């Protein structure tokens, strides 16, 4: 009969002998250790776990419940029987719920031996069942590993001082370019396909497989870089440790994940762009009003000053600064798509000539700046301010690529398809493939912190795309960069799209009555002065409610309402509806610093209402007012 190891938790030596003798008289061969403290129980469970534990219920410094806690903490499956004197039914039931397998009273020890034998037999049955389940799981796992991954590389190796590849499936040829026989004869051929940086990790995994799948970079037979995922388990087969695993080509999944990350990054950038657009829209209205007031009064003063007046240069400097401020606002609004678009037929060469002086001041004297224009270019249909911004941004970007000087060439011409082209080339540092790929991304910059916003080329991209044009970029590190903008030749004649920057007889009024609706006092006074000085009869209102009262007054007959878009109270759409309800034929011209379609809070504007961008020049306002009034007289639609 086999010896049964018993851990006896008992503080009384006499009671311990009583229990042991009872078991031995029942025919059990007992080897026991008596303990009476938690420390001794913990030590016994760690050093030599018993086959069964018999415990007194209550001792001066320890009890059966505390012993059960220690047993559960050890993770061992050992039967636990409580032997005690008198105890109530509820305490006994509580011990059973805590994990005790049986409860025997000391005055009825005849039950002890049968209880021990029963619990030993049940414990043995549990152990055998666990072993059988583990073997079954191992068999099922091995079968599933092969059955579910036949399209992948299945391999088996014997672990030892040097792992030996016993089997590898034919699919390995697609990953390595070698047959299974070649790989089994020389397993280094398998490791040679692994990227050198990941090779050691794969070798280590064969000795000690990680819990999670291992992904390594892999050089595929065609020379391309791929990613391989390894799943590996160790099993014992006839006393030997065997590694069984699968190699799966996950290149497509990795590339898809990277693409998803890139799209998420683009979404994040788009959200940043949207936030920037909201910020720009929030400030554009008030800022453009201020610029409009400054520019307007400067022009009034300049009209009154002679060419030789000592203050004329100062006023022109103020006017220039205001126009620069408007250009900066325009760049931000173009980027955030809040700038009104007013395309017209434009002579590219004329625009280049007009801003050449500014370009040369911007570039500096250490750059050899050359301009080569092709004469008699077809005109293009684009917002002139945006074309200026395209040229300026390309030149500034090229200048930044040549911190130590170099050559910068701005050229115009046409391509084989008749497009009008603008090319800016530099002899700067050039771009890597990664930089070229991201050059037109919003916020992307290679300059140091505080030296670039990352908006220059992305602004160019947005403006060119809006004008139905294309961009081409060529660059070589250490040689330089060339960016070409191609715009469709305009199908509009100058007569169809007159310049609003040039005044003329047709821009003056002949006593027509205009109602100006603007809550900004400065802009309202500027508009009143421009129109009244050009021969119009002008009334003004600071609120839309006041304007509606004037419109509904039968004694007032207006030829045009000039109204700001953003004003307190009713929306611009509600205001226009109310005007048309009272005077259906009365035209309205809107003023705004936002797009021709939406305000800063995304409120849509009526699509049939003409609009002029703020800040505006006097000539532009006069021409716009004249065209809207004349359009009503001949009953033709007015476009924005």
From TrEMBL:
The entry lists its GO molecular-function terms as: ATP binding; phosphorelay sensor kinase activity
Which InterPro entries does this UniProt record tie to the protein? CheY-like_superfamily (IPR011006), HATPase_C_sf (IPR036890), HATPase_dom (IPR003594), His_kinase_dom (IPR005467), HisK_dim/P_dom (IPR003661), HisK_dim/P_sf (IPR036097), PAS (IPR000014), PAS-like_dom_sf (IPR035965)
Q: EC annotation?
A: 2.7.13.3
- Signal is among the record's keywords: no
Q: Which Gene3D superfamilies match?
A: 1.10.287.130, 3.40.50.2300, Histidine kinase-like ATPase, C-terminal domain (3.30.565.10), PAS domain (3.30.450.20)
**Catalysed transformations (reactions):** ATP + protein L-histidine = ADP + protein N-phospho-L-histidine
- Response regulatory domain ranges (all copies): 5-121, 513-629
Where the record annotates domain PAS, the positions are 139-204
Superkingdom, taxonomy of origin: Bacteria
Where in or outside the cell? Answer: Cell membrane
EC top class, as a word: transferase
Q: Which GO terms describe its cellular component?
A: plasma membrane
Name it.
histidine kinase
Q: Please name the source species.
A: Catenuloplanes niger
């Amino acid at each position: 009969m086999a010896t049964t190891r018993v851990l006896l938790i008992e503080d009384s030596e006499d009671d311990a002998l009583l229990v042991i003798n009872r078991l031995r008289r029942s025919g059990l061969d007992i080897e026991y250790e008596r303990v009476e403290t938690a420390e001794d129980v913990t030590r016994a469970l760690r050093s030599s776990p018993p086959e069964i534990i018999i415990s007194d219920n209550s001792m001066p410094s320890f009890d059966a419940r505390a012993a059960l806690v220690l047993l559960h903490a050890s993770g061992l499956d050992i039967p636990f029987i409580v032997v005690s004197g008198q105890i109530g039914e509820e305490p006994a039931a509580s011990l059973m719920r805590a994990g005790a397998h049986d409860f025997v009273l000391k005055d009825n020890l005849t039950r002890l031996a049968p209880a021990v034998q029963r619990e030993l037999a049940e414990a043995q049955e549990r152990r055998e069942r666990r072993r059988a389940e583990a073997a079954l799981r191992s068999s099922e796992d091995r079968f599933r590993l092969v059955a579910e991954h036949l399209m992948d590389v299945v391999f088996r190796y014997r672990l030892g001082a040097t792992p030996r590849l016993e089997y590898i499936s034919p699919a390995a040829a697609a990953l390595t370019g070698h047959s299974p026989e070649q790989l089994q004869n020389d397993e280094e051929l398998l490791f040679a396909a692994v990227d050198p940086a990941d090779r050691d990790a794969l070798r280590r995994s064969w000795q000690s497989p990680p819990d999670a799948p291992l992904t390594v970079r892999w050089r595929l037979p065609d020379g391309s870089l791929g990613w391989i995922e390894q799943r590996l388990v160790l099993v014992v087969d006839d006393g030997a440790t065997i590694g069984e695993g699968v190699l799966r080509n996950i290149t497509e999944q990795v590339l898809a994940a990277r693409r998803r990350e890139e799209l998420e990054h683009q979404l994040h950038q788009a959200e940043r762009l949207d936030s920037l657009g909201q910020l720009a829209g929030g400030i554009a209205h008030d800022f453009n009003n201020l610029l409009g007031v400054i520019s307007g009064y400067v022009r009034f003063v300049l009209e009154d000053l002679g060419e030789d007046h000592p203050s004329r240069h100062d006023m022109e400097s103020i006017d220039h600064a205001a126009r620069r401020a408007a250009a900066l606002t325009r760049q931000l609004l173009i980027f955030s798509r809040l700038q009104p678009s007013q395309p017209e037929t434009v002579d590219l060469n004329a625009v280049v000539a007009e801003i050449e002086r500014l370009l040369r001041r911007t570039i500096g004297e250490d750059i050899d700046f050359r301009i080569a224009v092709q004469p008699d270019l077809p005109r293009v249909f684009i917002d002139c301010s945006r074309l200026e911004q395209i040229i300026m941004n390309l030149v500034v970007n090229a200048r930044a690529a040549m911190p130590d000087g170099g050559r910068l060439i701005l050229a115009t011409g046409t391509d084989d398809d008749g497009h009008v082209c603008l090319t800016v080339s530099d002899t700067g540092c050039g771009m890597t493939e990664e930089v070229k790929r991201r050059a037109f991304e919003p916020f992307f910059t290679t300059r140091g912190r505080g030296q670039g916003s990352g908006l220059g080329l992305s602004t160019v991209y947005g403006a060119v795309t809006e004008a139905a044009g294309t961009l081409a970029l060529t660059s070589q590190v250490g040689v330089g960069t060339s960016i070409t903008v191609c715009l469709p030749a305009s199908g509009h004649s100058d007569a169809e799209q007159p310049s609003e920057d040039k005044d003329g007889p047709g821009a003056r009024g002949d006593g027509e009555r205009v109602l100006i609706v603007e809550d900004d006092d400065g802009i309202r006074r500027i508009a009143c002065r421009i129109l009244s000085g050009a021969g119009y009869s002008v009334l003004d209102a600071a609120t839309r409610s006041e304007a509606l009262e004037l419109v509904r007054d039968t004694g007032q007959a207006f030829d045009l309402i000039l109204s700001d878009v953003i004003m307190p109270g009713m929306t611009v759409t509600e205001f226009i509806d109310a005007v048309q309800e009272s005077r259906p034929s009365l035209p309205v011209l809107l003023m705004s610093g936002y797009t021709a379609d939406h305000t800063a809070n995304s409120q849509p504007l009526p699509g049939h209402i003409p609009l002029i961008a703020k800040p505006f020049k006097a000539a532009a306002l006069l021409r716009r007012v004249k065209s809207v009034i004349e359009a009503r007289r001949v009953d033709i639609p007015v476009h924005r």
